[in-house]
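Handover notes (outgoing to incoming on-call)

Open items:
1. IraD/Gp25-like domain-containing protein: sequence verified, structure written out, both below. Nothing else pending on this one.
2. Nothing else urgent.
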Amino acid sequence: MAVNYYKLPIQARDLMTNASSKMVSLEESIINYLHLIMTTRFGECQSDASFGCALWDVDFNNMGSNHKLRAVIADSLTKSLKRYEKRLSQIEINVNIEQDEMDGRATVSRVKKMVLVHVIGVINKTNENFTYKAHFYIAPLSY
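IraD/Gp25-like domain-containing protein structure tokens:
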């Protein structure tokens, strides 16, 4: 039995016009869902307030060290992935925090924290290794 996976975000106009939605592979579907979990703040999903991760809760938190920040993000993301992404097993998450100097349009450069996330696991259905890397900028005044 073939299983279809929809590309995120789902286009509302396709649903309203009965057009066919874009389909993706199992691996890309998992990647889309991981990205959705990482970019969702706790409480943002009205039907399930625990969906998301703490990455956005610590955005402007001035924790004393990057080690604490890394631990909070890794712990939150591990719990969320184990709860919501059942297609993966043996999940390992590595989080690194780096300072990144961004050239602004003005003569002043800005330094931001860049959170690098590396997710490793096994796809249950195919027993294949899975890896995903993403990065996000957080505080100060990340936009």
